[in-house]
Specification:
Blueprint: E1 7-11, H1 15-26, E2 30-34, H2 40-43, E3 52-55, H3 57-65, H4 69-73, E4 77-79, E5 81-85, E6 91-95, E7 104-108, H5 109-123, E8 126-128, E9 132-137, E10 142-146, E11 154-158, E12 161-164, H6 171-177, E13 184-198, E14 213-217, E15 222-227, E16 233-240, H7 253-263, H8 274-280, E17 284-291, E18 295-296, E19 300-302, H9 305-308, H10 317-333, H11 338-370, H12 374-389, H13 397-402, H14 408-426, H15 440-450
Parallel strand pairs: 1-2, 1-12, 2-8, 5-14, 12-19
Antiparallel strand pairs: 3-7, 4-7, 5-6, 9-10, 10-11, 13-16, 13-17, 14-15, 15-16, 18-19
Helix pairs in contact: 1-5, 1-10, 3-10, 10-11, 11-14, 12-14, 14-15
The protein binds flavin-adenine dinucleotide.
Residues 11-17, 34-37, 49-50, 53-54, 132-133, 165-167, 171, 193, 236, 304-306, 312, 315-319, 321 line the site of flavin-adenine dinucleotide.
Length: 464
């Protein structure tokens, strides 16, 4: 490929689009990024979904590779663990890691997106807002965009290579499927989410503990709250689409108030804007997108939610999308053959995306139904003790996913072995004190036999 051809267009200037644009522009590519919405720096951010998110080690590492970690971290709020709110009004902090070197960070989607757009432009990428991809002609090498913001006109541009970073409903993916089968399958979760807010206090301060991700687990449904750096919290109610309660039976503000009064009594008084929020923030469905193929020869490739949208219960969709961006940019940088680069990227990332999709689904049950169970707490405690005894071998799944960068697929494989060890050891035990009576020598041997020590490379990311 000659210098003249080193041109990539990216569809979608969301989180993945802006980041991969930065990485490629820094490698010397001419990058044009097309976004259907207006410029959030001029019009305000109109994200339409999850106002804030948990940023973890994988995401931070990718931001660091793109030179924007410090700018992003400056506006985050640290979350040390889950603050579990029980039905009787009491609460308990369950730390995520061993200490404050193992934490996650709440980041505001709009602020993050704006920081990433600024960095992409600084790196040399050109932004085109109000350009919704309508059609791609792979043979002619032309892309048609519609201006939804102003005149509704169509704009045609030519392209050599296109990256689809246009989210779960990707238009790039739809256009690729006209050329070849991608093996798309979407599995709805049957649950949706709705966002509310705990505003800051009159003094601008947080009204509940700021350095935690709050959870109100209620078996089949739950609320969570993540802090924003402006003193408020974004609260998300996750609930089945149908049922009692479900979004089909809790429709009106009155019904919502009744649900909160009964099941989230300590939270309701903090939701001072519930009238407005319930009316304006719709219930949005959740699901998992599986795709057998992410690329079309050397012409098109997908990153982030466009390739593997997942349910948000491991807080990894964005983190995984950022890892995709680093991987794709690395493979593209390795040689001139883009078809080979896209194949290597897909081979590296797809098994890992599938693993985190699976773990995210499993984590929903854990968050809403298990974090207040006695047997869960027993297994968790045993897991922590085994980690103390074998820090290189027994690392809780949450830590492998959140504080390290070992491949998600390996984290899943090892965590299955660990779960088996925990289940067998705690079967029939009751109460934390029962752990004292375990045969620790036998357990230590089992850990040594079944779990190889993690290598330094696999532990990469662990901050200690
Ligand atoms: C409730 C909820 C909570 C979440 N919490 C977390 C969390 O805590 N941690 C975490 O890591 N992840 C979380 N996620 C997942 C995270 O939001 C996504 O994984 C992430 O946004 C994916 O980024 P993306 O750039 O691939 O897609 P998006 O962020 O969806 O960006 C796609 C962009 O493409 C644009 N676009 C779409 N169609 C077109 C078109 N035809 N033409 C031009 N532009 C187009 C869109 O306007 C948008 O700007 C959460 C998701 C949800 C729903």
């Amino acid at each position: 490929m000659t210098d003249k051809d080193r041109h990539i267009i990216i569809v979608g200037a969301g989180l993945a689009g802006a980041l991969v644009g930065t990485l490629l522009a820094r490698q010397g590519w001419k990058v044009d990024i097309y976004e259907r919405r207006g410029d959030p720096r001029e019009k305000g951010y109109e994200g339409g979904r999850s106002i804030n998110m948990a940023l973890a080690e994988r995401g931070r590492h990718a931001l660091q590779q793109a030179g924007c970690e410090d700018a992003v971290m400056a506006r985050t709020v640290m979350m040390r663990g889950r603050m579990v709110h029980f039905t009787d009004g009491s609460h308990q902090l369950q730390r995520y890691g061993r200490d404050d070197s193992e934490v996650i960070w709440s980041v505001h989607r709009g602020n993050l997106n704006i920081t990433l757009l600024d960095h992409a432009e600084d790196a040399g990428a050109t932004m085109h807002f109000n350009r919704r991809l309508d059609a791609l002609d792979f043979e002619a090498g032309t892309a048609r965009f519609i201006d939804d913001g102003d005149d509704g006109k169509a704009h045609e541009v030519s392209f050599e290579v296109v990256i689809g970073a246009d989210g779960a409903g990707s238009a790039v993916r739809a256009q690729m499927q006209r050329e070849t089968k991608l093996g798309e399958r979407f599995e709805p979760l049957g649950h949706s989410y709705r966002e509310l807010e705990i505003p800051a206090g009159d003094d601008g301060q947080f009204r509940i503990e700021p350095n935690a991700l709050h959870i109100w687990p209620r078996d089949d449904y739950m609320c969570i709250a993540l802090p924003n750096d402006s003193g408020n919290f974004t609260v998300t109610l996750f609930m089945p689409n149908e049922g009692d309660p479900g979004f089909d039976t809790v429709k009106t503000l009155q019904q919502a108030r009744e649900l909160f009064k009964r099941d989230f009594a300590d939270l309701l008084p903090l939701l001072s804007g519930i009238e407005h929020d319930w009316q304006h923030n719709p219930a949005s469905p959740l699901g998992t997108l599986y795709l057998e193929r992410w690329r079309l020869y050397g012409r098109a490739v997908l990153v982030g939610d466009a390739a593997h949208a997942m349910v948000p219960f491991h807080g990894q969709g964005m983190n995984c999308a950022f890892e995709d961006c680093v991987s794709l940019a690395r493979h593209i940088g390795e040689g001139p053959d883009l078809a080979a680069a896209f194949t290597a990227y897909e081979n590296e990332r797809r098994p890992n995306a599938e693993a985190i999709q699976h773990m995210a689904l499993e984590n929903y049950r854990e968050m809403r139904d298990r974090v207040d169970d006695a047997d869960y707490l027993l297994q968790r405690e045993l897991g922590l003790r085994l980690q103390q005894r074998h820090p290189d071998r027994f690392v809780p799944r949450y830590s492998m996913v959140t504080f390290m960068r070992l491949p998600y697929a390996l984290a899943l494989e090892r965590s299955r072995v660990q779960e088996d060890i925990l289940l067998r050891a705690t079967g029939g035990l009751e109460g934390l004190e029962a752990l004292e009576g375990l045969d620790w020598e036998e357990l230590d041997n089992e850990v040594r036999e079944r779990l190889e020590p993690l290598t330094a490379e696999q532990k990469a990311g662990a901050r200690k």
